[in-house]
């Protein structure tokens, strides 16, 4: 009989605790949902659109890269003026310059210089030290590019 009384008190205590903790979060969640959910969902939609757009642009860039249409890739990067996409593509382009079989012409490098300059001045420069070093190295080549006759030298 004592054990039955103990079990009843235990169940009653557990039910009271569960009721207490279940009610409080529901009220908090509903308050949060009512007040802030619209703002959170708008931010989510915006971020989804930004990422979708960037993914499309990167897929276009990848198509140019796979076709080895480097001049078209560079022209595309210059045309869209999206530094996020440039940040993603630039390491691949600079690595290609270091290979024996270079696919990037001097003219393409010159066309990239304004983007490099913008990138060095942008918020991306703060987060990517390796890229900064690569860009600085490319920027130092400007003096050599100015000696090239014709259009390339004039642009540099």
Characterization of the model:
The protein is an all-alpha fold and 156 residues long. The chain has a domain at 43-144. Helix content is 86%, strand content 0%. The protein has helices at residues 2-66, 70-80, 83-98, 106-121, 124-127, 129-140, 142-146, 151-155.
Task: Name a few traits of the molecule.
about 0% strand; mainly alpha; about 160 residues; single chain; elongated; 8 helices
Element order, helices and strands? HHHHHHHH
Cα distance spanning the termini: 96 Å
User: Per DSSP, what share of the residues sits in E-state strands of 2 or more residues?
Assistant: under 5%
Low-confidence stretches: 16-24
Shape: elongated
**Total number of beta strands:** 0
Q: Biggest sheet: strands, sense, closure?
A: none
Rg (C-alpha, Å): 29 Å
Helix proportion: over 70%
Domain Katanin p80 subunit C-terminal: 42-130
Protein name: Katanin p80 subunit C-terminal domain-containing protein
GO cellular component, one term: cytoskeleton
Keywords: Cytoplasm, Cytoskeleton
Write the layout of secondary structure elements.
Elements: H1 2-66, H2 70-80, H3 83-98, H4 106-121, H5 124-127, H6 129-140, H7 142-146, H8 151-155
Helix pairs in contact: 1-2, 1-3, 2-4, 4-6
Keywords: Cytoplasm, Cytoskeleton
GO molecular function, one term: microtubule binding
Main location: cytoplasm
In short:
This protein has 156 residues and is mostly helical.
């Amino acid at each position: 009989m004592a054990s039955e009384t103990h079990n009843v008190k235990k169940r009653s205590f557990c039910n009271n605790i569960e009721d207490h903790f279940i009610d409080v979060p529901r009220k908090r969640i509903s308050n949060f949902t009512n007040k802030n959910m619209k703002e959170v969902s708008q931010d989510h939609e915006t971020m989804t659109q930004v990422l979708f757009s960037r993914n499309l642009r990167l897929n276009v860039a990848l198509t140019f890269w796979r076709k080895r249409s480097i001049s078209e890739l560079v022209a595309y990067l210059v045309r869209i003026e999206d530094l996020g996409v440039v940040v993603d593509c630039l390491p691949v382009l600079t690595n290609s310059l270091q290979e024996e079989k270079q696919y990037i012409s001097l003219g393409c490098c010159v066309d990239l210089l304004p983007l490099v300059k913008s990138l060095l001045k942008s918020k991306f420069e703060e987060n990517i030290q390796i890229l900064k070093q690569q860009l600085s190295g490319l920027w130092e080549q400007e003096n050599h590019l100015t000696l090239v006759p014709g259009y390339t030298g004039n642009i540099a």
